[in-house]
Amino acid sequence: MALNPLRGRVAYIFDEVNFDVDQIVGVKNIKITDVEELAKLAMQPYDPDFAAKVKPGDLLVGAGNFGYGHPHYPPMKAMRHLGITGVIAESFSPGYWRGEISMGFPQVSCPGILGFVQRWDELEVDWSTHTIRNVTQGTEIAFEPPPQSDAEMIEAGGLVPYLKRQATEQRQQKGSEHVQGA
Amino acid sequence: MALNPLRGRVAYIFDEVNFDVDQIVGVKNIKITDVEELAKLAMQPYDPDFAAKVKPGDLLVGAGNFGYGHPHYPPMKAMRHLGITGVIAESFSPGYWRGEISMGFPQVSCPGILGFVQRWDELEVDWSTHTIRNVTQGTEIAFEPPPQSDAEMIEAGGLVPYLKRQATEQRQQKGSEHVQGA
């Protein structure tokens, strides 16, 4: 298993503990399914020019228990559409974590991240050494490796491709057992 | 699905953020596999009389990112042996959460829990209403429902019985499809 490193700028820092991601698109817009429309609404309360500033590869940073509340997919669908490739937070809400990992969206649990970055710092997340390098500041911080199955799910691109891959591997294993047994 | 409510006293409050559960038995004892021995070592640095005070059903309370560090099973095996039936924390480390849920050990993510309890308060965790009642103080606090699959894993008693149950259900479904198709 080899997860691709994440490389990008800190596009935004959500410094609120127990941050509910619904607020990114606005609670009243949470039923919208069109991702273009969601992307237009995203971040309006925080930075109306966000869409113009963000670049593909950029990352979000969060505080403790990031993703608290009912886990809804539209906010991060909008963020991915805008180019965001992952979230690094002090800690995560279990429901949010599970949901976004099952979408194959990288999440990094890193106590101390809030004191480690400023907005627009350039970061590199190295999964093999479990370190985040702040390229702008020339510093490093360790992070918690995700559970193995979560890392595999991120690498596969989400729950559905992950399960398909597992099924294929099982079939191949059975096939080779059959050959051995013949 | 109906998870049994948790009912017990707050046997200990770990108020340290990023608490590494290895400290419960001591890092140097983490390779011990005998649960009786682990139970004797447990909580020595925090409360040497813990084993005499704890009662079956009691709960542990933790701070933010509870379970940070390499997820090892011995500390909570020792705690379960002493009668502990679950952990309520401000938030959890993803690796710890995944590991203990796969053991069928109830974990409750509840921002605000530290300010809501004192040691030895009697609590009731109601999964159906997502509330924790502090029987001693006569107060209530809402908690985040766990992801559905995690709730099912707790109810089944862990990952292995959960997968067995799913396999049985799939076989039964196939059987009934076969009958319908006949």
From TrEMBL, chains A, B:
Q: Which UniProt keywords apply?
A: Lyase
Q: Does the keyword Lyase apply?
A: yes
Q: Which GO terms describe its molecular function?
A: lyase activity
The record's InterPro entries line, in alphabetical order, gives: Aconitase/3IPM_dehydase_swvl, LeuD
Q: Does the keyword Lyase apply?
A: yes
**Sorted alphabetically, which PANTHER family does this protein's record hold?**
3-ISOPROPYLMALATE DEHYDRATASE SMALL SUBUNIT 1, 3-ISOPROPYLMALATE DEHYDRATASE SMALL SUBUNIT 2-RELATED-RELATED
What is the name listed in the Swiss-Prot or TrEMBL entry for this protein?
3-isopropylmalate dehydratase
Q: Look up and give the organism this protein is from.
A: Azospirillum doebereinerae
Lineage of source species: Bacteria, Pseudomonadati, Pseudomonadota, Alphaproteobacteria, Rhodospirillales
